[in-house]
Amino acid sequence: MRHPVLAAALIALAALPAMAQHQYKWPAVKNEPARKPFYLPYVQAGTPTSMTVIWRGPKPATPSIVLKTADNQPLQTVNGPAGTEHLFRLTNLTPGTSYRYAAMEDGKVIGEGEFKTNLGPNGKQFRFAVMGDSGSGNANQLSVAKRLEKWGPDFVLHMGDVIYEKGDFEGYGPRYMEPYHTLVANTVVYPTPGNHDYGRGNADGYFRFFEMPRAKPTDTEQWYTFTYGQAQFFSLDTNTKFDKGSPQYQWLERELKASKSPWKFAFTHYPPYTSGEHGSSLYVRRAWGPLFERHNVQVVFTGHDHHYERSLPREDFVKDGSPTTYIVSGGAGAWMRGVKKEPFSAFTQAAYHFIGITMNDRELNAEAIDRGGVVIDKFKVIR
Ligand SMILES: [Fe+2]
How far apart are alpha carbons 179 and 134 in whole angstroms? Predict the structure, then answer.
């Protein structure tokens, strides 16, 4: 998140009592009719021991946040500096644990949520969702949003083109918070930027809205990595130089080499394998394909083409028995496009959809679910 008047507050919760695992449930968001979804809180950049809660207000106010246990016992109240943009980083949390929070302005609750912290490096069982090319603000986006919310992921990957047409910050009201405000009050969305998010040249709206996981504050937010349980995720920016020798390429190679996670997933906007209208980005394929295959990245998720597609497992560069499967998931709201089927493809369908992925120690099980709730494709990866 980039913003000059960012209000930051740190919470040090020393010696929190160990809390029991809690069944996840969707809370109601209080006072919703009185406040535009654009001004409701959302969670970002979670780690096993921290969570960031962000919101903004229609006028300057003094913010505070009440952190509670999952059964609503208050743990701590922290005040932040007055302003219109509020960011609280909650720290010293327990991994794999549900918490509730109430976001307040001038002592009045303006929104609530419940999140579960990242399981930590030994976490084997979790579920996440994938969606892309969402930000139309129309009924198609809303119908996929409702399905995704009901499916109840632990977190979400967004393939970019978050906001059409130009990625403007103001678009995050009607084209993001209106369809997703309940989901994002409780669930972290990890994005990767699309070409439309860079529609004004520098993706200011995207970087102002989202807070990316970073090892240190000086790290770029254009590309980043995070781990969730036994999986490591790499968000890559195909709008910025990515060929061999570029800072992004060098970073990716270094991070893949250093990764100790048995599951590795990359996500980016331009698809290196697609049967859709835009066609495969051979630049991306030639630059990163060898890295993905050599370092056992099991699945690469992409968007940009507005359909669903799963490739055959690819060993086009490194034939070592550990192939990479490529997914196109550009169907979360933007106008649908026709799709053919290239020889590298296992399945294609023009459908508004998201993907629900369930992980355990040895297996990934994925379902592509359309806006009517129909499973249009299933696939499994065994490691
Ligand atoms: Fe795109």
Answer: 10
